[in-house]
Amino acid sequence: MIKCVVWDIDNTLLAGTYLESAGQPPAPDPGLLAVARELDGRGIVHALASKNPPEAADYVGRVTGLPFAAAECGWGRKSEAIGRIMADLGLAQDAVAFVDDDMLERAEVGAVLAGVLVLTPEDAIEAVSWPEFSPAVITAEGRRRGLMYAQRRQRQEEARAFGGSRDDFLRYAGTDVLIAPAGPADLPRLHELSVRTHQFNTGTEPVAEARLAGAQAAGGLTAVWLRDRFGDDGLVGGALVEADWTVSMLVMSCRALGRGLLDALLAALCGQAAASGAGELRIPCLITDRNVPLRLALAAAGFRAADSPAPTAADSLRTSPSSKSSRGSTVSELAAPAGPAGRPAPRAVVFSRSLAGPLPVLPGWVIVGERP
Amino acid sequence: MTSDDVLAELRPMLAGVTGRPEVAAVTAQTALFGPEVGLDSLTGTLLLVEIQERFGVDVAAEDLNLDSLATLATLATFIAQRA
So what CATH class is A164-309+330-368? Predict the structure, then answer.
């Protein structure tokens, strides 16, 4: 499923060349603008990669009215520009499409980033009807995704100018987090998060709305809302907690990356479990090559993989220096054969944390309670 | 490559991913997830990417619990044993 379309500017999003226009830069290409607006409405975000000065991106943002999650203007390789956009937005190659009228640019990106879907402007017009561009579930928050990524870009630009620590900046930004029991109206969004998130997700399969509804009725469904002075992100994460304090679903939008939200949710769950007299909080997790950020948050909150045996001799053989050619390998590849679609099969482990002794601390901007 | 060599390269790397130059000067025993460095899911992921590119060591693949990220000293030792 495509999550982000990276657009060239000259003779692609614009019906002409930005720098060759005397005084008045060209207008947007009407066909592609309609496509981009349609995709924005489906929750697919847009970015720019252009051999132009940065003012060109500002101009395109103004005349198209589209929110751009990232803009790379310069004279380097397009593959490198797209690589920076993927790193910035936390995207894998197979979630990115690239549209450019220039055959050489398309060839360069296709050669370096084989997983990126490379399209001509004519392809892009047709792509609107392709399944890769047609998400099964589109919620209100999904439709606002492009706008929220654009807000995140503004926040990051301010953060870079601000300096100081992350916590200093989160305070300055007026970060306001609410962790509270989910209501029936929150179920579609929580289901969508279970489908769309990969970096902060303990599972790999969608959690059905019926399952979420059962947990909600039983009081075991928690949701996380986020807003700050740059924008209101709405419902960004949640947890499904069983009666025995096993967390069978933990999801957080990757918008929350670097904003301390998963840490806050883990701290809140630890606090609730401890208050109810539980001895430990358990979080079963499928380890994939995508959810390293989740593991970092678990490690930072003091969770450890309880049921994971020490590496076996066979594992250490496969991770020995002699196997350096397979350096892209992950824990999951070591443990299991490749799964569907060439991705390594995930490895199932259970992270747990004792609730005796000091618990992870909740930052001051997090409120744990009921929705107003 | 000794762990001291690795440590010397990790310091500017850590300052780069956190965007805070002063972090390069913390002691090798400072907790990376603690308040002084404040490594989190975003900066931690960036650090692991940098480490894999520079040293060819995939820490996430080889250290399930990410214990190696406790301090600069533990991280340097972990990398030096594998690089």
Answer: alpha beta
